[in-house]
Amino acid sequence: MSDKTLTRMDLSEAIFREVGLSRNDSGQLVESVLNHMSDALVRGEQVKISSFGTFSVREKAARVGRNPKTGEEVPINPRRVLTFRPSHLMKDRIAAGNAQTKG
Amino acid sequence: MICLYRGTMTMIRSELIQKIADENPHLFQRDVEKIVNTIFDEITDAMARGDRVELRGFGAFSVKKRDARVGRNPRTGESVEVEEKHVPFFKTGKLLRDRLNGK
């Protein structure tokens, strides 16, 4: 369904277009935004961006997993995982935008 | 900087904007707002077109197709046809996943 992949470069380009900053400065700002979000999440905070979505960190307990290929039991250590809950606005826009296209 | 929400520390959009503004005193506040908003808008717009957004180290946003299915109204037990739809999906990048676990 998706034929194109956007990267940091495309986000910098959009800032260059919208605000007129140099591509270099725009790139650094994209990086700063991602770093501040990452740092907050690593501190265990959630990051809530209205009309976009919420990133939150969940603690997963230790459990015994299984290697699906060999059937062997392997211990899985307790870990922290990041989940993203899209806002209703985002869900509606993604549903509407992709409704006509053939997957 | 940080507000308490349901017992969890939360960073919201305006706090993210403030952090970026504090680090970039040469930029107008309204431009910082526009920069941060542009980043999130570009991501949503890309997914609405069915594109992927890959931000190495942080994570990747993509669109997943959910096939049509027969669902059930949990209150009445009645069968309802649920149409095919597209939903946003986020996969955490390796670097951030490792950082969340102190690696």
From TrEMBL, chain A:
Classification via CDD domains: IHF_A (cd13835)
Source organism superkingdom: Bacteria
One MF annotation (Gene Ontology) recorded for this entry: DNA binding
Pfam families documented for this protein: Bac_DNA_binding
Entry-linked InterPro entries: Hist_DNA-bd, Histone-like_DNA-bd_CS, IHF-like_DNA-bd_dom_sf, IHF_alpha
Keyword Transcription regulation in annotation: yes
Subunit structure: Heterodimer of an alpha and a beta chain.
Protein name: Integration host factor subunit alpha
Organism: Thalassovita taeanensis
Automatic annotation (TrEMBL), chain B:
Alphabetical UniProt keywords: DNA recombination, DNA-binding, Transcription, Transcription regulation, Translation regulation
GO cellular component, one term: cytosol
A Gene Ontology biological process term: regulation of DNA-templated transcription
Pfam family, one: Bac_DNA_binding
Family annotation (InterPro entries): Hist_DNA-bd, Histone-like_DNA-bd_CS, IHF-like_DNA-bd_dom_sf, IHF_beta
Quaternary structure and interacting proteins, as annotated: Heterodimer of an alpha and a beta chain.
NCBIfam families recorded: hip (TIGR00988), PRK00199.1 (NF001222)
Family affiliation: Belongs to the bacterial histone-like protein family.
Function of the molecule: This protein is one of the two subunits of integration host factor, a specific DNA-binding protein that functions in genetic recombination as well as in transcriptional and translational control.
Protein name in UniProt: Integration host factor subunit beta
Species this chain originates from: Thalassovita taeanensis
Organism ancestry: Bacteria, Pseudomonadati, Pseudomonadota, Alphaproteobacteria, Rhodobacterales
Gene from which this protein is expressed: ihfB
